[in-house]
Amino acid sequence: MRKIAVVTGTRAEYGLLYWIVKSIHEDPELTLQLIVTCMHLSPEFGLTVQEIEKDGFPIAERVEMLLSSDTETAIATSMGLGMIGFAKAYEHLMPDIIVVLGDRFEIHAAVSAALPFRIPVAHIHGGESTEGAIDELMRHAITKMSHIHFTATEEYRKRVIQMGELPENVFCVGAPGLDHIHKLKLMDKEELLSTLGIPYGRKIGIVTYHPVTLEKNTSEVHISELLKVVQKFPDIFWIFTMANADTSGRIIGRKIEDFLNKNPDRGKLFASLGQLRYLSLMKHASIVVGNSSSGIIETPSFKLPVVNIGKRQLGRIRAINVIDVPECNEKYITEAIHRALSSEFKNSLKDMRNPYGDGNTSDRIVEKLKNLRLGEQLIKKKFYEIER
After folding, report:
1. How much is the pTM?
2. Are the beta carbons of 326 and 311 closer than 8 angstroms?
3. C-alpha span between 228 and 207 (Å, rounded)
4. Domain residues for 235?
5. Which of 120, 187, 318, 385 could form a disulfide with 280 if both were Cys (CB 3.0 to 4.6 A apart)?
6. Residue 224 maps to which CATH number?
7. What is the model's pLDDT at position 24?
């Protein structure tokens, strides 16, 4: 049987990988080797490895790498620890294919460690652009170290080929995060409000704000500006989700906690919601505010207005539900939220379609993983020259 190792390091990324992991696990021709790392193993970030265990997936290896600090030195050191841990995992498991998603530092470590083992790497969500984050550099480096590519749009497929990857190894399959929307039975509003302790009779807003990692020492200023805006909308109950374990991410969490301690009626902070509750929130929310990729990729399926702040998602394809605010500025964010909540703007979204696919991405990926021909021709990469 073909052994497929899937690497997951965060709650959000595991949600995107869920149906791929499930399909591999249930396929009699495949063996799942699930490698769990980084934020999943941290109590500070909700110890979300427990969610994976509740889903019934066997965990093949746990790679401890995350230090209890988010300084530049700590992140770089975590990457080094990750490479050591992944090397030991690959030596033990010897998978036929490694599957990774996205652009985070732990994924870069996982792929770098795979190179000496000559194990083919399948990368999901390559070819995208997020010009305000270090993820931009990580993603393209991961692309060049990978052998099989699953992109979310045709434009991203062309970009991966532009980077010299062979067209026959680059597949446009859509975004796997949309599969949940089509396959899960989302919670009705009453159940959601009861489960999360959201008061009845108020609109729901979702806030996810991550550090802009290519800007130094801006996290505290940015989240302070955003919290000033939140104060101006008392009719909205705000659900905050924890920032990633990126440089200066912890200051964002501390500022939100301080705000909610002083204003407990304004919202709640969750370390992890899980896909069912998070997508159910999107279904019933009035607005999403922040700079998360979920605001770009998943929200169009709900026709949900989004206020996207700053440069973190600069370069990503977006649908017409996204209102971009170039600077994290109180005045500009306030104006954008008022516009997003207007009847005129909501009515303009009625006929929109999600540019990231149809919700059948996982089936396409697993089918390719089963049938791809492995061997020297895949490992010995050639640079593909586009004819001018």
Report:
1. 0.82
2. yes
3. 13
4. 186-347
5. 187
6. 3.40.50.2000
7. 97
